[in-house]
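#structure-requests
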Amino acid sequence: MLRTLRRLLACPGLEFAEPPQLLADGVTARAFELRLAGAPPAISGPLVCRVLCDGGEARTGDPLLAESALHNALAATGFPVPRVFATGTGGDELGAPFMLMERVAGRPAFGVFLGALAASVPLAALGIGAAPLVVCLAAWGGMALLLRRLHKVDGGAVAAELARAGANAERLGPDAALTELDQLIRAANAKQLEPALDWLREHRPPLSGAPTVCHGDYWYGNVMVSAQGVHLLDWTQAGLAHRELDLGWMSLQHYSRLPMAVVDPLFDWLWLPVRPLTWLFMAPIRWIYRLGGGVDRDRLAYYTALCATRLLANGAKLEREWRARGGSRPAELSAWGSPHTRALLARRLRRICGVDVRSQEPEDPKLTPRDLQG
């Protein structure tokens, strides 16, 4: 890593002021916290190096350059994202695509929300009964406003900035998303999802005018809150499409076993009564967002189907790889690959586009009508 950064930053005397420390170990990437000595002042502060690993092949090369350029293009507009200082495509000493960016201080909004909600309960017991509701409305409204702010960014100007940076903006577009989904389905050998892909290709809504900058994985865990404000992180699934891409993804999030996957041994009996309440985390954000108008129902259904298909294909690929190599079950597979979640995604997909993917959907007699509510 150090040899690669010396070359890319043109700083032959570059050293680590502090040894890199593993910050996060995900399915597709690992993030390291580090600090450099002998670097220009702009990059002498806390940094994060995100290195793609197994499962990240869909975002290598030019797409990663486009993601880096997107960070800086958004930062140039004043939108709160970390700036990227260096990008590697995998053909260097490090041997894997990576992004070196500024580290944003603060705590994830999910933890802040739950902490504030817990602190409001004693206030309610003391007679200030509206305190929990105020906390919820503030969290939901703040998340909706941040997403609105992102969608108001001039997508045409961002695409032009990507082109000036030498990145291919089309690799973040809807056609590229379908191409990546096709590759994912083939890698997972999930032939039962091919009719869904055909439907998505046939019904893809055309882009008229400038595209909308979409985050692609918008939820509390990717919003960092500090005394200086908020920052939106993790643009791995970002795209230049319609705003309904973000809303479609958000409409599926309560299907996951997160954030309770840490108590996996208890899930068989604990998750069923708790999971219906998880819609409270994201659904009100969508409702508040839609109060501002501008949401197309047909496009929302399309992008919901796109996200559901991608989740099913990714789950099939992860399970195939896990069974081939053995070991512990990946966290993402435990969250999105559970029988309940896969069955709910498959039923949602069938309701939208009439595609039956039952071979992807495990038998699960414990599903109830309430479980199937979308």
